[in-house]
Amino acid sequence: LPLLTKPVEHRVALIEACLAHAAPAAPVIQFTYAFQPPVPAHLGAYSVRRGKRIFLNFPPATVWVYTRPSA
Predict the structure, then answer these.
(1) CA nearest 47: which of 19, 21, 22, 24?
(2) What is the 3-state secondary structure (H, E, C) of the chain?
(3) How far is CA 1 from the centre of its chain?
């Protein structure tokens, strides 16, 4: 998804909606060319971690993994 073209409030709402509709332990995966997460962790009820950087892609890309906080 081209999240960086959307306002940050819409990005947060999208990640939270995806997580709300996913299975309890299922992550939301985002593939982006940005070096920072497209949806910052401190703005919503989720956590984010950087997955792999794909250097063979041109331009290099990063995988970001969004999850619900542990209960």
Answers:
(1) 19
(2) CCHHHCCHHHHHHHHHHHHHHCCCCCCEEEEECCCCCCCCHHHCCCEEEEEEEECCCCCCEEEEEEECCCC
(3) 10
Residue 70 tokens read as 């542990």
Query: The dihedral of CA 7, 11, 58, 53: what is its sign?
Result: positive
Q: pLDDT tens, position by position, for the chain (71 residues)? A: 688 899 999 999 999 999 999 998 899 999 999 889 999 989 988 999 999 999 998 899 999 999 998 75
The closest of 62, 11, 2 to 41, measured between CA atoms, is 11
Phi and psi torsions of 44, nearest 5°: -145, -175
pTM of the model: 0.87
